[in-house]
Amino acid sequence: MTANWRLTIETEKSLGALPATVRVEVPIVQDVRRESGLVAVRGAEETSLAVETATDLQRVDLAEFNRASKQNHTDLVSAFRYLRSAFAFAVKAEAVQPQVDATVMQRLRVGVEELRLAAEVTYNVKKAGIFQLRAQIPVGWRIETVGVVDAALRQRGSAFGVVNNWTEKTEAGARVLEVPLRERTQGAVSLLVILAQTLKEAPKTLAVPAVHPLGVDKLNGFVAVSTEAGLSVKTDGFDGLTEIPAATMPAGIYKGLSEQPTLAFKFLSSEPSATATWKLGIAAEQLESWVRAEVVNLISVTETLVSGRALVRLDIANAPVKEFRLKIPLTVTNVDISGANIRRRDQTGEVWRVELQNKLRGQHTFMVTWEQPRVAKTNAPVDVPAVEAVGVERETGSVAILAKPPLQVMEKAKSGELLVADPRELPEWAAAYASGAKGEQVVLAWRYLRPGWKLAVTPQRFAEAAVLQALVDSARLTTVVADDGQMMTEVSLSVRNNGRQFLEVELPPGAMVWSAFVAGTPVRPTKQGGKLLLPLEQNARDTAMAVEFTYVAADKFPKRKGNVAFASPKLDVPLKNARWELLLPPDYEYTDFAGTMGRDLSGAPVVTVNYSATEYSRQEARSKELRDNESKSSLGRLNGLLSSGKLSEANNEWFNFKRNVNNPQGNRGTQGGQPGKDMDGDEFRQLKEVEQQLRRSQASNLVQAQQAYTLDNATRLGLQTDAYFRAPAETKGAQSQAGQQVLLYDTDAAEQQLEKLQKAQEVTVATVQPLRVNLPLRGQRHVFTQVLQTEVNKPMTVEFAARNLKAGGWLKPIALTLAAFLALWIAVAVFAQRRTA
After folding, report:
1. Cα 266 to Cα 104: distance, rounded to the nearest angstrom
2. For the residues of 212-274, what is the DSSP string, one character each?
3. Predicted model pTM
4. Residue 28: which domain range?
5. d(CA 630, CA 772)
6. Do 121 and 266 belong together in one domain?
7. Residues 606 and 560 in one domain
8. CATH code for the domain in which residue 219 is found
9. Is residue 248 part of a domain?
10. 181-234 pLDDT, tens per residue?
């Protein structure tokens, strides 16, 4: 052995039932001269210790014991020092009792048919844990839900976990609920108990029951009372409670009873008690319902029928209602009341009783539809039926008359309750119904503040107005006048056609047409009654088409001076935005302009134009550019129609495209009926692709039509369809998904048939060769405009005075003769004078 040596001895001794007195003994070291030491006691978590005997012992600090033992014990109760081993030391051991504080939040909901009590008890367990929760519950109430929130659920933020293994027993005539916990629990734990009791009618007085937790040292809590709609409660008496504002009632974890409480109290119990220490009595009273009605009457008037939709909006306050009544006149038929939660409808005379599935409170809308035949006479007055709400506190509403545009509805008579209103003043919640169906519009509207109104209206049909079938959007006239009065006029019209077949044009007397074009296509105008008939096309895209024609005429033009008047061709349709350019002989002075057209000095100043080969080339280049742009635009529209599957319109567009480019006057002509001459490579390739796609689509449609025709004949005649099929091995046909053989029609053959048919049609159609004239633009340019010409078959006129600047009249020759004679006389006199000298 060395000088110092440490020995550790652990001993154990069983104890009996607690509480018990325990004598503390330590091992005695033998064969030593002197012995001293330290002794300390500590208890378990569930045990408390108290020193009863300490003879020959001196109390020391616990820290000194830890330093000597070189251990850090934090649960020591007492420590002593002894100088000899013959000391007497005894302690008393007792079990530790848990210290439990509880907070109760109890909510009672009073209904007409049921009482519902929700108690939320929050336990705060200290010192020692507990294994179960115990609470006293009232007698006569059924338990619906029992739940617990422990520490684990609180960390996850979960609500109550439902407990199914709870038990109920009776102790001293009281009901006790016991809820076991999963393990010994210390800290915060919450218990939820929901109780219910069924009633036949709402109680007039009631003693509020209590859920009282057992085994707690300190208890405080809150009691709240709320009611369902239609009930009110007041305090009948309370003891051991302090009333607080209902808004300060804590929310708690359970959100099942979300109504704002009417009454709220708090209590505090500092000593344990087997029963609740507070009492609360309440008195309940059933309220009367307060119903406000807003009725929007929408009446549709036609030539033979009056139908209505009454939107009834009920605003129910205080107590809920389960039925309401409406007053509907007996003159209407096919009455129907629709809406949510309707159980049945009963009629007694004019009064309809509507029973609901459940009681309603708040805003609810119902619809009443009805019909009323009217007298066949169109302008006979109509008495408008009124739908009213019966048994309500107040009724307001609106009346709106709906009709289609051909029918005019006017007010004939009304009572003083109705006030004229704007249709936009109808309630927003009824705006969707007021928009009308089948083109109906609100034509008249009223509002009223009390029921009992009367209204009579007179429907009358509007006279049908004539539809404008055609309109000339713009008219451009260019006239070149020669010195001898010969005139050539080029007219360009932009026409919107809505159903006209011809455009009638009456030229000035003696005029003759040289050429005419409609939508870029040359036409041969016909004459009827001295008027030209230019054929018009129907344009589905609602765009304007170009109508162009050129005519020549002769008129007297003054050689020296005089008045001149020009008149435009007469059209049988209105026109707007007319512009007339006159190129007059340059050696004249023009004044005193008049006529229906006004002279435009700002936009087109008077200039003198000389016609030359350069001007002719410029006109040709501009015409070629316009034709190229039109061809590209037409090709783009054709691609769009083919992409969208509009084959019929694409075929018409292709025909128009070919007709436009088959123009011998243009540079993008055709050869052999095929467009594409003088096109660049990309345009020609695109043109060929469009033509091939169009022909393939036409052939596919032809094949489908032939297959449908053959199958229809086979079915109608009762023949076997197998006779109309051929196997794929023999032909190029394919089998369908059902395994049947498909009729064989060759698409290539169909394309060849279409090509031959198209060539035959091109041979039989007579081609009109166009004559485009480039006007020789020479002379003084004067521009005249007119905004609108609503009167048809009336020409636009231009009048002015012209004076020839080169012609001097009969005085000019005489003056020249006298001047020549005077000059000769002076010359002779001067010569004679020199000779004499």
Report:
1. 9
2. EESS-SEEEEEEEEEE-TTEEEEEEEEES-EE--GGGS---S--S--SPPSEEEEEEE-S--S
3. 0.44
4. 20-95
5. 17
6. yes
7. yes
8. 2.60.40
9. yes
10. 888 888 888 899 999 999 888 788 899 999 999 988 899 999 999 988 778 889
